[in-house]
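Annual report, structural modelling task.

Input specification for the NAP complex:
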Amino acid sequence: MQRSGESSIFLSQTGNSLKLTNKVAVISGASRGIGKALSKRFASEGAVVCMCARHVDQLRTASLEIMSSGGKSFFEQTDISDEGQVRDFLALCSSNFGPIDILVNNAGILGPRVPLSGYLSQEWTKVLSVNLNGLFYMTRNALPFFAPAGGSIINVSSSVGKIAQPNWGAYGVSKFAAEGFSQALSIELRSKGIRVNSVSPGAVATEMRHQAYPQEDQRDLRKPEEILDVFVYLASDESKHVTGKSFDAQHFTKG
Ligand SMILES: NC(=O)c1ccc[n+]([C@@H]2O[C@H](COP(=O)([O-])OP(=O)(O)OC[C@H]3O[C@@H](n4cnc5c(N)ncnc54)[C@H](OP(=O)(O)O)[C@@H]3O)[C@@H](O)[C@H]2O)c1
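The model returned the following structure:
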């Protein structure tokens, strides 16, 4: 996909006594689903939200929705599997808004639901290039822009990244990797005051979930907006001593 080179900044007034006031949050995969809902929620809590994904029209819509509710946002068309695009995006976030306080590595793709023995190599590479390389590119290139006081990194995982299930292929493997990445990084960054935790959303009504379970009636599932409290908690100072932990968004208790 060609990049449009387009980016926009929308600024407007927000209220106070919010959980993320004046924090700068970077969210990948913000064009739809959980990432879009999370961007809107973080903005409603007072954060400036820097959003990326590949579909720029959907990012623009998300940004307009944030602005119409009085929030602040920025977006840039970015494929997280391309490290150059990731670098450009993060540099723009920081040059526009200053140090980053929060990074949510949310973007991901599903890939085919087939056994590993029949998994095509090109599909394997494609899924890992987004779910694993993208996670690494976003994190490594965001770290130099983190606020001196530290911050919070939240990696979006999955139940199939904790207990292996058949027919999840590279997706399941990438989520196990995300859990390991989160654990190692949390130890490495502890002295810098940057916390790293993972969140498994559970079954949530999104395009990815529909792709995984096409026969399912999504009206029976939680909506993205209904699973976001754990993200706000982990992004906020309320969880300032919490790091190296793995959370289940649908059974969230403050720890
Ligand atoms: N929904 C569930 O039930 C469920 C359960 C467990 C875990 N999760 C995890 O939750 C996260 C969000 O999933 P979702 O359900 O909201 O899925 P979704 O609706 O398919 O959204 C995925 C997001 O990732 C973005 N994305 C995909 N490839 C990208 C790339 N190369 N570069 C940048 N952005 C990219 C997509 O935007 P573009 O297409 O515009 O790039 C989109 O914004 C994922 O990490 C997923 O594994 C979801």
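The longest strand covers residues 194-200.
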